[in-house]
Amino acid sequence: MTTSAQTGSAETTATTVVLTDFAAVKVKALIEQEGRDDLRLRVAVQPGGCSGLRYQLFFDERSLDGDIVNDFGGVEVVVDRMSAPYLAGATIDFADRIDAQGFTIDNPNAQNSCACGDSFH
Fold first, then answer.
1. Calpha distance 118→75 (Å, rounded)
2. What is the 8-class DSSP label of residue 113?
3. What DSSP string runs through 30-53?
4. Sign of CA dihedral 29, 35, 36, 37
5. Residue ranges of the alpha helices (H) in the chain?
6. 102 — alpha (psi -120 to 50), left (phi > 0) or beta?
7. Backbone angles phi, psi at 30, to 5 degrees
8. Smallest Cα–Cα separation from 83: which of 57, 121, 44, 51?
9. Quick one: CA torsion of 45, 47, 48, 53, rounded to 10 degrees?
10. Using one digit for the tens of pLDDT, what is the confidence trace for 78-106?
11. Among residues 38, 43, 36, 79, which one has the least CA distance to residue 58?
12. pLDDT tens-digit profile of 30-41?
């Protein structure tokens, strides 16, 4: 059973979040500014927000049981096993325009959103 669980994780890995090349460059630069080489970008969903769930993006050195890890140009993106179904197929990008700046998440699973922009259901 352990083998099939590991295989299941490997299959799930292909369907979790995608980090665009531009976002990977930005994440890598931010990690370098921190002066640490043990940090990864953790993406999670947490209860809250006006539509029920909200995204969390943060640097993390921890490895949790069931984590799904993908490498994008030397940047590791980690998703915990509880968040993975909500983030399957989501794309993380970085906007650097006059009207928007920061990380964005395009999530096909987000059927409803709210005006605050950081929550989905």
1. 23
2. B
3. HHHHHT-SS-EEEEEEEE-STTSE
4. positive
5. 2-13, 21-34, 84-87
6. left
7. -65, -40
8. 44
9. 50
10. 999 999 999 999 999 999 888 878 999 99
11. 43
12. 999 999 989 999
